[in-house]
Amino acid sequence: MLMEEYMLFIVNIFQVSEINFADISHLTNLLENLVNTFKEFKAHEQIENKYIMKKLKDKLRALSVRNTAVCNCHSDNQLTDILELVQDGYKCTQKTETDRKNFGTKLRKALEDFTETFIPHMEEEEAVFQPMLIKYFTTDELRKIKFKVLEKHFCQNDNCAKEKFPEKTDFVLSKYMNGT
Q1: CA angle 5-92-97, nearest 5°?
Q2: pLDDT tens digits along 94-135
Q3: Closest residue by Cα to residue 107 from 96, 117, 99
Q4: Are 149 and 48 contacting, i.e. CB atoms less than 8 angstroms apart?
Q5: Do you know which InterPro entries this protein is assigned to (predicted)?
Q6: Rounded to the nearest 5 degrees, what angle is found at the Cα of 98, between the Cα atoms of 96 and 104?
Q7: Residue 104 and residue 126: Cα distance in Å, rounded?
Q8: 77-84 long-range Cβ contacts below 8 angstroms, 24+ apart
């Protein structure tokens, strides 16, 4: 996970604990931030599935290595559920103050539950998948995977920076890949 995404998520969780759900403008602003955050998470998971986990599964299969953690990871059901709940929150802007407060309680609980499983997921990625990638892939293969993942993160919406500014995007990606 990109650190910026994680920090944004933490900020949004803090906002939920501090927000007055009776105030429609505060609620709307929070919902916009949460929708954007969870859409980014979902895009991140999809990119990981397609460009990292698929390659890892294929590599392990080719080497006749079986690993249940790789086979069972990255279902986005929980992300889809929380995103739907947040998007449903927009309906509360047309409802009573009591309904908005009830939604706030439900949202806080859902975010707490999500966080309880999301943090272990991130820890699993670091503890299990990163060492496997290092073990089974060459440095050059890892660089190519990293480049593809970064490229897809830059292009996760219709306003792909690479299409608009290919020379600048390639420069930024190459700088990032070289650690400079």
Answers
A1: 115
A2: 999 999 999 999 998 998 888 888 777 778 778 888 899 999
A3: 99
A4: yes
A5: Hr_FBXL5
A6: 110
A7: 32
A8: 78/114, 78/117, 78/118, 79/38, 79/41, 79/42, 79/45, 80/42, 81/110, 82/38, 82/110, 82/111, 82/114, 83/35, 83/38, 83/39, 83/42
Q: Is the pLDDT of residue 27 over 60?
A: yes
- The angle that helices 77-92 and 97-124 make with each other, rounded to 10 degrees, is 160
CA 173 to chain centre: 20
Write phi, then psi, for 21 (nearest 5 degrees). -65, -15
Give residue 140's pLDDT: 96
The pair of three-digit structure tokens given for residue 5, joined into one six-digit string: 């995404």
Residues 154, 160: contact at Cβ < 8 Å? yes
Q: Provide the residue type at 151 as one letter.
A: E
Its pTM stands at 0.73
Per-residue DSSP letter, 94: T
